[in-house]
Write a structure and sequence with these properties.
352 residues; Arc Repressor Mutant, subunit A; SH3 type barrels; Alpha-Beta Plaits; six-stranded mixed beta sheet; four-stranded antiparallel beta sheet
Length: 352
């Protein structure tokens, strides 16, 4: 099937302000305020951005933007106090996208690429460049920071809609330009349903095909351990001003790279080798190797395949292997064979 090129989106019509301020100056003021972020920008600084334009030109540009739907924060800072403008809402014609929306597209691309859904991947790939052109300079930097904190393997889908306020706070803590901020979480435990409040340093968002959802991988400073929080079970989140400190990133990096279905352990990684036979599984695994860490699939004599990957905890590999039924035999490690033996004995006991 031929690739369909994305249509060029026409620029939204914007109200004519040329009699007061040239449109390009109105756009320059909007971009400058947006790029200033939470710190804001003064009228004098905006004047310099316009090449030394008169302050009344800046006033007119701001007035025009407000008439066109923009909303500015106007907080006083410094001594003597001076108004700093921040952008709370863009004008009606503004075509910029948020870095969070751009990140959502990147996650979709990663998931589609992992599941070999080429048709939709091609369409979204065409939109990627278009979306990039509609990020402001500041938002582009924020997106690049956030992009380094996302790990996707295959597709994953939470049935529960995520709270956008919570997700925004998580992304703000992850994507801070000076490093991650501490994050205060109100979290509902899966086993008891109880909610507790804790503080963690966010490290990475992880998604994989076996977890059925998205997780926040973080460092729990109070317990001095790596924790994984399912996003759908985070009731509230608040990005704090304090910079988060992680004493050693290596356990977090290992958990990110080797987690399977949200399962990981603090010990050294182990290699899993599984021989798979049957009439369908060998070719299915050769055609589409599963999204497992460091996975390889090799064809053997007799029609079987040798599936190999890495893990740090037995529950993740077991979840995958059990779907292969009697067609799979774990060769290594012995501890995983023992774990599966116990699981299978318990399963068999339920059917007596």
């Amino acid at each position: 099937m031929a690739r369909i090129s994305p249509r060029k989106v026409p620029e939204s019509a914007r109200p004519d302000g040329s009699r007061l301020v040239k449109p390009e100056r109105v756009q320059a003021v909007l971009d400058a305020v947006r790029d200033a972020g939470e710190a804001g920008i003064t009228k004098a600084a905006l004047s310099r951005k316009l090449g030394g334009a008169a302050l009344r030109t800046v006033d007119r540009a701001i007035g025009l933007l407000e008439e066109q739907g923009a909303r500015f924060g106007k907080g006083r800072q410094g001594r003597p106090p001076v108004i700093h403008f921040t952008l709370e809402k863009g004008p009606s014609w503004d075509s910029r996208i948020t870095p969070h929306a751009r990140l959502a597209m990147e996650v979709a691309l990663m998931a589609l690429e992992g599941t070999a859904t080429e048709l939709w991947f091609d369409h979204l790939e065409g939109l990627r460049a278009l979306a990039d052109s509609h990020l402001s300079t500041r938002d582009r930097e924020l997106f690049r920071t956030l992009q380094t904190h996302v790990c996707v393997r295959g597709g994953a889908d939470d049935q529960q809609a995520l709270d956008t306020v919570m997700l925004t706070q998580v992304l703000l803590a992850l994507g801070h330009s000076d490093g991650p901020r501490e994050l205060e979480l109100t979290y509902r435990a899966a086993s008891t349903g109880r909610t507790t409040t804790r503080t963690a340093v966010p490290f990475t968002l992880t998604h994989d095909v076996f977890s059925g959802g998205a997780f926040l991988l973080a460092w729990d400073a109070a317990k001095q351990e790596v924790r994984s929080f399912r996003l759908a079970r985070i009731a509230e989140a608040r990005s704090l001003a304090k910079r988060g400190l992680i004493p050693d990133k290596r356990p977090l990096e290992q958990a990110r790279d080797l987690q399977i279905g949200g399962w990981f352990g603090p010990g050294a990684p182990f290699h899993v080798k599984v021989r798979v036979g049957g009439s369908n599984w060998p070719q299915a695994l050769l055609d589409a190797p599963p999204a497992l860490p460091s996975v390889t699939v090799h064809k053997e004599k007799g029609g079987t395949v040798l599936l190999a990957f890495q893990a740090t905890e037995p529950s993740g590999p077991a979840r995958f292997i059990l779907q292969l039924g009697a067609d799979a035999e774990v060769l290594e490690p012995p501890a995983l064979r023992t774990h599966l033996t116990g699981v299978l004995k318990e399963m068999a006991g339920r059917y007596r």
